[in-house]
Amino acid sequence: MMKRYICLLAILTAIAALLCGCSLARSDMDASAASRDRLIGVYITTEYIDLFDLEGYIGANASALSGGSIGEADAAQYNGRLYAELVDERYVFPGMDGFAFFMATTEHEYGTSYSNYTDEGVCGCKIAVNTNDNEDSHEEALELECTIYGITGRNDRHVIYTNPVYQTANGEIYLTSGHGISTSGAGAGALVSQKLTDSTTFTDSEGNAATSSASVNVHYVIAELPLGYTLIEMDADSREISRHEYAPGELPPEYAANAATAYIVLETRTASGSTYALYSAGNTDVVTYAELKGKGVLTEKHTYVTFASNEADNA
Hints:
Layout: H1 2-19, E1 38-45, H2 54-60, H3 62-66, H4 72-76, E2 82-83, E3 85-87, E4 90-92, E5 99-108, E6 111-118, E7 123-133, E8 137-151, E9 159-167, E10 173-175, E11 179-182, E12 191-203, E13 209-223, E14 228-234, E15 240-246, E16 254-256, E17 263-270, E18 273-280, E19 285-292, E20 297-306, H5 308-314
Parallel strand pairs: 8-13, 16-20
Antiparallel strand pairs: 1-5, 1-9, 2-10, 3-4, 5-6, 7-8, 8-20, 9-10, 9-11, 12-13, 14-15, 14-17, 17-18, 19-20
């Protein structure tokens, strides 16, 4: 029994080594447009999603395993898929608890439309779709970047799993098992990043070369839990005009500054002390954070400040 256990453990370790890369890259030169699946983002979880058909893999590759040779292509075909369901105009993965961050497309008679699906708890999102059309080629590049903020003292280990999300040519969306990334420390400021990339080249219906690529960059940062915020209005001579205190998550979505306010100081209070940020007419998006209950992460909130100078410019 012990020998059998050790052999199974060795098989699992070898398979994990094959599947633990931080990027996905492919070039399907002969693939038709109707058969390609595109990387469109990630579904981030705090637990591993096990979709690998281990029993089927061992049964079909027993001879190769006994000889110690495991091919990556052979292992990849046993990676399972979990398809998303559209519920109330949102894609959900049945039985999963995580954070969606992907850009799906819909084809119609007028062209292609893009829909962003980003769950609360995914912060600092940057999304770009770049296209380049020439007479004999077409290039489209999707770029996604986000940050997940773990909270100090909430977990013995700080790890997340970035599960790749794909879209098929007929519009179906599915995920595959991703890889875990963890911070080197549990203190505030600990940071780790993972980038997934994917590229597919094919020939379109008109015989021209077409390339579809995507990159998804996920940052995982450990941060202190905010205890409260103070919004302080200052005049041009740095004299205080007013101050307002807020609990995390309670700042209003819009805030009209006093007519004499030249800039705003935002104080963030945590258990270790206070930090300060300045906002003026050229930077009116005040970003704060609050705990996303039951998720163990922070979520960002935005307050858009209107200064008198902004109103004058729009008059």
